[in-house]
Amino acid sequence: MNDFLIKRTKQLTLGLILSGGLNVGLALALFFVWKGGHTPKLSLEQIERRLEELSPNKAMALTAFLPLSYDQLITHLSDKAQVEDGFTQRDLALGCLVSKHYFNIAKALPGTLLQSRQFVLGSDNIILFPGLSDEQIKKITDYAATEKWPLTSQGLFLKLKEIKDPSLKSSFYATREYVALDTLAKGCGLEIPKEQLLQMLLEGSFEKLQQVSQEGALELSNSHLQKILMAYVEGCSSTAADILVQNYPEFACKKLDDPAVILLLRQLKTATPAAENYAKEMLVSPRSRAVWHTAALRLYQFHGETAPKSFDYRAAVSRFVSRAALDTKVMPVTKPAVAVTPVKEKTAPLAKKSEKKQFLHVVRQGESLWTIGKHYHVEREVLKKKNALKSDNIREGQVLIIP
Predict the structure, then answer these.
(1) What is the DSSP letter of 119?
(2) pLDDT (tens digit, 9 = 90+) per residue, 166-175?
(3) What pTM, to 2 d.p., does this model score?
């Protein structure tokens, strides 16, 4: 019995020694890795940076393509000469067309799931599309030859800042970004002329347009549209200011703080009846002297007159409002003395508190009526009826009303 216990003790001791040795070895290995004994794995950021690096051959080829015009790049779409890593001359030309000239490859190859690789060359981000077949390249060249404006929404937007071609405008009116805002305005009961809405958008940036239109679901309400209009006013859009005072005078008079009112008055550049009415309302409103002064300056400008060097409130009221207003001792002059034609605010019928708000949804790639209905907890048939759809077919960019 004693021999058995001694034997088992020796075995356990040996096991403990081996286990301790393995633990020490593992600890040493981890130590050397930590200290640099082995090459550590690259972080995700390092891997992404490496993917974005261009080889000298591709960089040299892209450098030659970047200065080329749109038409010159189109001619290179037939060049199948190999450059490197499977990329051809036509791949580089197409990448420059898409990245620098806003060529709409998604419309040229509808329904195609494209692979893309992004490279950085100086200050330029170039997107290349590997593995395109001859048939796909032919579709791209055919689209470029037959479509007058084969550009993305951003390309059409930037082109409109240069020229005002009617066909270019028509193409932009069909973009998802424009349709979303136009539908929102109509849903709020406003019929803003296309030219006026377009002018407002062009007074801002494409990034601002994306910000207000690519939210997936836009709340179909006057407050949401007012917020968008004020965002454009803050970006120095005189057209947005005109639309705001024309369609939402009550909001412009009552709901804005003094700095916003001053900003709005400064953006009213055209002497429309609504703009003049608004300036008169602000001149006799119970607001700050800065608001009165700005309103008076705007009224002098509307009438083609030079404003006095020193602001005289009573003189401004006497000139633009009513002499009877001068008899009051209250500053500003009270409303009954103001000879201003009241402007009724145009508003869409507001939903009762118990009713659900409506929303706008811009259809994204791969979405169906079933998936959209499931997201908003609305039956597919209800969606079809609300949007007057004859079938279940919907397209990317289409705007749906969500009840």
Answers:
(1) E
(2) 999 999 999 9
(3) 0.70
